[in-house]
Amino acid sequence: MNEDLILLAHGGGGSLSKKLIGEVIIPEFHNQILEKLDDGACLTVPELEIVFTTDSYVVDPLFFPGGDIGKLAACGTINDLAMEGAQPKYMSLGLILEEGLLISDLRKVLCSMSKVLKETGVKIVTGDTKVVERGRGSGIYINTSGLGVRKQGVNAAVSNAKLGDAVILTGSIGEHGMAVMGQREGLNFKSSIESDVAPLCDLIRILLETVPEVHCLRDPTRGGVSAALNDIASSSGTGIEIQQKRVPLKDNVIGACNLLGLDPMQVANEGKAIVVCAESSSESAINCLRNNELGKDACIIGRVVSGHAGTVLVETGIGGIRILDIPSGESLPRIC
Questions:
Q1: What are the residue ranges spanned by the domains of the chain?
Q2: pLDDT tens across 292-322, in order?
Q3: DSSP secondary structure string for all residues of 186-242
Q4: Which CATH superfamily groups domain 158-323?
C-alpha cells in the first residue's frame, strides 16, 4: 500500500481517518479548541457584532504561480470578512479529497493555509474530511466558513455608496485569473504572471481606523472589477463613472488578456479591494493604503454620480463612453 496516497478508507471514520486527521491535518492548525475534536467548536466572542461567511474552493489546477488552493481558501474567507469591516477570528475547514491524491500534495496545501492563518492570527477551530472515489473529484475541494467581529457603527455594505463618493482600487487587476488560466492551459506568456492572492484584513483594519468615512468595500473576485462595481451601483441605486486610463494594469496582464480576447475588468482578483469613501476622505484613504505593501498602487479610478442609476460607465482611453456590463457568465471557470 502506497502510504502517500489518499484512499477511500481515509474517509471511512476508522483508523486511517484518525491517522489522516492526527498526523496530517491537526499538526498544521493545532490549537486548544480544534484539538478537542468535537463535532463543533464552543467560542467566546466578546464583541457585539459578529460577521459570518462561507465559501467553497474548486480551483483548477490546485497549484498555480503565486499560490495554491490552500492559500486561496484562507485568503478568500478572510477577505470576505474584511470586506464587511470585520476582523477575522475563526474558520472551519471542510476537505473533500479524491482517492489517489498524494498526501504530500495535501500537506503542501495545508501548509499554505497555515502560513496565512499564522500571519493573520485566525484559527481553524472545527472541520470535516470526506473522500470520494477516483475520478469523482479534482484532487481537493475545500469548504470554509469564517467568523469575524467588527466594532459597532462600522457598515461597509455595497448599498452604502453615496453621491460624490470617490471609487478607489487598491492595486493592479487581473493577475489571479490570468495566472490560473496560464497554468491550466500551459500558456507561455511573454513574462510570467503570478496570482495576487493575499489576506487583506490588516490593510482594511488600518484603513477603517484611519478613515471614518469609508462607505463600502468589495473585493473584485469572480466577475472582476466589472461585477463588483455593478453590485455597488445596483445595490445603492447610484451611477458610477470610472476612467479606463486610471485603472492600474500590468503589461503582462494586458498582453495575456489581448491574446485570449478577455476584458481585464472581468478577470478575477484575490488580493485587491474596491473602496468607496467620501470625497473629502479620499486623499487620506489613498495615503493610508499606499503605506501598506498590498495597497502601494492604490488610486482613485472614478466617482459615484446621480445619473444612470444602477449603471457603470467607463471613459475609454480615446475619450469615448461605454457601459461596463456585468459578466453574463464565467469566462474563466474554476479560478477560485
A1: 8-150, 158-323
A2: 999 999 999 999 999 899 999 999 888 899 9
A3: T---SS---------HHHHHHHHHH-TTEEEEE---TTHHHHHHHHHHHHHT-EEEE
A4: PurM-like C-terminal domain (3.90.650.10)
